[in-house]
Design a protein that fits this description.
This protein is α+β, with helices and mostly antiparallel strands. The chain contains eleven helices and eight strands. Helix content is 39%, strand content 16%. Helix 2 packs across helix 3 and helix 6 packs across helix 9. Belongs to the XRCC4-XLF family. XLF subfamily.
């Protein structure tokens, strides 16, 4: 179609990550796990945190374990990551800290303790962070002390692959938007029911004891117009570093926990997928909440409690998020299109379109064929 741009993101065809990253809730020292896929699944449930280096604001999340670490950081224009095992950490520590002869696990534990307050918005007084961007990546320099001696560390981050960006940022944001929209619709329904209840009381002679408590009947259209005209501009004018306030961090965790849970369920065989009726597929697009992830399957569900992690409040429990994400699309929602040959979207276009306030969650949830 002349003048039209169609953007799709892959939700079906995926390859496993060889390295993964993420900087969120205070970094955690986790027990050793086999396979980068299981490590990334634990990273996925860590919420993003806002960090500031000089005049630049970033979103980041990190996860440490006794065999290495993985880091993901973004300025919302680019996304970078680094994954380092114990051998790489030991080699780099020898190059940067020649006077220190501690075990690799001590380096990892110290790095974890340095990143914790940074992600909590309270970097240590004796710790300095600096960030240097280049065409090939991003370097995060850390200067501190260990055992009374100077301690230096450099995170060497390279551009993150698109599939990692979609998994850790785009898909959770889309699902969070859908969950919040469903919540808003339920609240509107409750308001209308309350108005009907109040009107019934009035018709039966009930009166208010305090006139200041009187309210006008809720008008959804007026509310939406006022929100778009007044509240939305104020939200959009806030700094990008405010993208993940504490309440949204909790929702992010609940949404990603649900994705990990869904990914660990037994998958249908390829034959089952290939033999599914074409007409049925065209009419009913797969729900983002229930789509299976080829790259995140694992043999057993990890149930250990991560030390230091704050519990998710009851308002955003995984069961509630699952219920919200299973909401059926309205008939007016954009239809699901199959068979379009789409090339990968450049990062600059991706940044603009990812935050488009349309309701067409299916259109935003695309694929390449």
């Amino acid at each position: 179609m002349p003048g039209a741009v169609v953007c799709f993101a892959s939700a079906r065809r995926r390859s496993p990550h060889r390295a993964s990253v993420c900087i969120a809730r205070p970094p955690l020292l986790l027990p050793s796990m086999e396979g980068s896929e299981e490590l990334e699944s634990s990273l996925l449930t860590q919420p993003w945190a806002s960090v500031r280096f000089g005049e630049s604001t970033f979103l980041a999340k990190v996860c440490f374990r006794d065999s290495g670490y993985i880091l993901l950081i973004s300025d919302l224009s680019s996304v970078w990551y680094e994954s380092a095992d114990a051998e790489a950490v030991g080699q780099r520590s020898k190059e940067l800290n020649k006077r220190l002869t501690v075990h690799v696990s001590s380096f990892l534990n110290h790095l974890c303790n340095l990143m914790c307050p940074l992600l909590a918005g309270q970097p240590g007084a004796t710790t300095a962070f600096s960030c240097h961007r280049s065409p090939s990546g991003l370097r995060l320099h850390v200067k501190s002390e260990l055992s009374g001696l100077p301690f230096y560390w450099d995170f060497h981050c390279c551009p993150a692959p698109l599939e990692m960006v979609f998994r850790h940022l785009v898909r959770p944001l889309i699902q969070m938007s859908l969950a919040l929209q469903c919540q808003v619709q339920e609240l509107i329904s409750l308001l209308l029911q309350k108005d009907a209840e109040i009107e019934d009381y009035r018709e039966n002679g009930a009166t208010l004891s305090r006139d200041r408590l009187r309210t006008e009947p809720f008008q959804e259209e007026t509310f939406q117009q006022n929100f778009m005209a007044e509240t939305l501009p104020r939200i959009c004018s806030a700094g990008e570093g405010q993208a993940f306030a504490s309440a949204l961090q909790q929702l992010y965790t609940a949404v990603t926990q649900q994705e990990v849970k869904q990914a660990r369920k037994p998958h249908c065989s390829e034959d089952d997928v290939d033999t599914a009726p074409t007409a049925e597929t065209t009419k009913h697009p797969p729900s983002p909440a229930t789509s299976q992830e080829d790259e995140t399957t694992s043999s057993s569900e990890r149930t250990s409690v991560v030390p230091g992690a704050s519990p998710v409040p009851s308002i955003w429990t995984p069961s509630l998020v699952q219920e919200l994400l299973c909401c059926k699309p309205r008939p007016s929602a954009p239809c699901w299109l199959w068979g379009l040959c789409c090339s990968p979207m450049p990062a600059s276009m991706f940044r603009r379109s990812a935050y488009h306030p349309c309701e067409g969650i299916w259109l935003v949830y695309p694929f390449w064929v």
